Amino acid sequence: MSSEPPHPTHTATLATGDWLAPVAGHPVHAVVPVPGSKSLTNRFLVLAALAQGSSRLSRPLRSRDSTLMCEALQALGTGIESRSDDTEWLIEPQPLHGPAAIDCGLAGTVMRFLPPVAALADGTIRFDGDEAARRRPLGPVLEALSSLGVSVRGTGLPFELTSSGRVSGGTVHIDASGSSQFVSALLLAGARYDDGITVVHEGKPVPSLPHIAMTVEVLRDAGVLVDDSEANRWRVEPSQIHALDVEVEPDLSNAFPFLAAALLTGGEVTVPGWPHFTTQAGDHARDILQQFGADVALGRDGLTVRGTGRVEAIDIDLHEASELSPVVAAIAAFADGPSHLRGIGHIRFHETDRLAALATELTALGTEVAETEDGLAIRPKPLHGNVFQTYGDHRMVMAGAVLGLRVPDLVVHDAGTVAKTMPDFTARWAHMIGD
Ligand SMILES: O=C(O)C1=C[C@@H](OP(=O)(O)O)[C@@H](O)[C@H](O)C1
Ligand SMILES: C=C(OP(=O)(O)O)C(=O)O
């Protein structure tokens, strides 16, 4: 039997939902604005629903994850109104109540952040989500709520939670090595618990720490006292949450593949509005692209990345910015030597098993890839077209687009799945390339 991968697929045979990733036949020169941050939008929505007055979000992200968050909060009683062509959302907090059914889709922020909020609702709330979401870990959040006296039936999706609408709060001990979102979830709602909340992590290191720093930052900005002075322990004092009037920063993780296009084509891409101070993990893109050999400049106009077309191999720990891993792996497939991605064992439980997905799909294009205990070892080889499977994972679509810049006949399967965080990704991508 031949070990050759399947034949390249051509436009004529494209199945519904498949997308022929455009090859950049020239250096890409573009200014690419990107929509608001998923992580900030969904945190602001939660805080606004728990706040003491009406809030306003400017430039929120409209995507599957944020729409699910809006719908879930509305199901619990919160008023949310979209204005000015969806560039402004007004949030009117109301007493939270059940019964309600919450669809989490595949959104980690919805499935993790909302159970501690639902514990503040009077009644029974049922949670479910996509088939793939049922495989994503949730136990530590549900066990923490149980230990605070909330009745929880189930250990992951689907599950049911029943509360009187009051939570005593106190100290919870959890293992958050599977996801930083377990900690963020409990902190976000904790100010509304009678005694606040103290979260103590016990276990292997917590991944994605910038995301917890973001949670602490948005809580403090809303007037909540948070003590994060000790490693692996966070204390949120009981207090009211001030209403918000905030503009959402652009999503820096979603900007990353566009910036990578400058590196890979020897072009120049600017993302306007890149914040000079931010807790977004996507800000690591600056350092990562520099390590790959790009020239990176943060100025008044935004972040500008210039490439030479040459990509240097890297050895990188992505534990803090694991959501960038799929695009980092795609870039590494063009490097001038073997690269190592480390510290990302937990992404086996992201939207899909990302280590397996990347290893399988990069191998099918011709790369030599080995899955390690906590990452990937990538040895670049000449690449050829193929169908690039995406496993319901928006970041696999982005990785496929990056690979397609230099690989003809690369067909990204189910490209619509990118709507999780960026519904118009393929249109923006084509526009950037001038397709
Ligand atoms: O809190 C958040 O907004 C997120 C936290 C991180 O999750 P993990 O800690 O599970 O990696 C990150 O990967 C995810 O994309 C968004
Ligand atoms: C891991 C991710 O998402 P989620 O918020 O669903 O965990 C991601 O966006 O890469």
TrEMBL record:
EC number(s) given by UniProt: 2.5.1.19
Substrates-to-products reaction catalysed: 3-phosphoshikimate + phosphoenolpyruvate = 5-O-(1-carboxyvinyl)-3-phosphoshikimate + phosphate
Domain Enolpyruvate transferase: 25-427
Pathway where it operates: Metabolic intermediate biosynthesis; chorismate biosynthesis; chorismate from D-erythrose 4-phosphate and phosphoenolpyruvate: step 6/7
PANTHER family tied to this protein: AROM/DEHYDROQUINATE SYNTHASE, PENTAFUNCTIONAL AROM POLYPEPTIDE
Family: Belongs to the EPSP synthase family.
Protein name: 3-phosphoshikimate 1-carboxyvinyltransferase
Species the sequence originates in: Flexivirga caeni
Species lineage: Bacteria, Bacillati, Actinomycetota, Actinomycetes, Micrococcales
Gene transcribed to yield this protein: aroA
